[in-house]
Amino acid sequence: MLKIDQLELGPVQTNCYIISDDRKECLIFDPGEESARIHALLKKKNLKPIAILLTHAHFDHIGAVDDIRERYSIPVYLHHLEKEWLSRPNLNGSGKYPALPDYRIKDADILLTDEENLQIGSFEIAILHTPGHSPGSVSFSFGNEGFAIVGDTLFRGSIGRTDLIDGSEKKLLESIHDSLLTLPEHMILYPGHGLETTPEQEMNSNPFLTGF
Q1: What is the pTM of this model?
Q2: Residues 110-142: pLDDT tens digits?
Q3: 74, 97 Cβ separation under 8 angstroms
Q4: Beta carbons within 10 angstroms of residue 64's beta carbon
């Protein structure tokens, strides 16, 4: 059984997830900031990172990418539609806020296609393309383990914002309906911010999904 550690990082408390197996290898999802805290958790639990996976390339999900990548010499996975976003503040959103520095991250090492299955070490992951919050937003489904990392597509009682570059409420709702609400109803969905939820809970109580 896989283990899940969660850190809330950076100015908007972005969820970073560290998924580890029995061999102590781990995947790091959305290391948004505060790399020292990530390093400390890895050291405390004696974990060996083998990859960084990004649900999308907004600034609050990518701030610690280069530090983590270089320290552990591991690849970064990102959807191909956001290939240029890591290095361009006008796309990753950091350029929108004068109080923030411009985030310029090195290119991803591996670009994901719309739908595919990944095998990274012992980890089996289904990639679900869930655009709307951003064009290259993806969710990572660990079907055999009963959970998925869904980024900023769906939150407990809410949905991702769609007023940023290339956002689309129509596409977001289609992604939620077609890719997330069709997952097993008790599957745990881990979002980019806030608390986990399930498809059943959101179908029953999320006001943004009325009529689905």
Answers
A1: 0.97
A2: 999 878 899 999 999 999 999 999 999 999 999
A3: no
A4: 25
Q: Which two tokens stand for residue 206?
A: 């999320």
Place of tokens 């191909």: 80
Instruction: Give the DSSP letter string of 2-47.
Output: -EEEEEEETTTTEEEEEEE-TTSEEEEE---S-HHHHHHHHHHHT-
- According to the 3-state scheme, what is the secondary structure of 66-121? HHHHHHHCCCEEEEHHHCCHHHCHHHHCHHHCCCCCCCCCCCCCEEECCCEEEEEC
For 34-46, what is the mean pLDDT? 98
Euclidean distance between CA atoms 68 and 38, whole angstroms: 8
Query: Structural domain tally of the chain?
Result: 1
Whole-number mean pLDDT of the chain? Answer: 96
Q: 39 is in which domain, residue-wise?
A: 3-209
User: Which CATH number do you get for residue 90?
Assistant: 3.60.15.10
Give residue for tokens 């055999």: 144
Distance CA 64, CA 62 (A): 6
Amino acid at the residue 141: S
Residue 67, token pair as written in the block: 């530090």
CA dist 90 and 126 (Å) reads 30
* Chain length of the chain: 212
Q: Are 15 and 190 in contact (CB under 8 A)?
A: yes
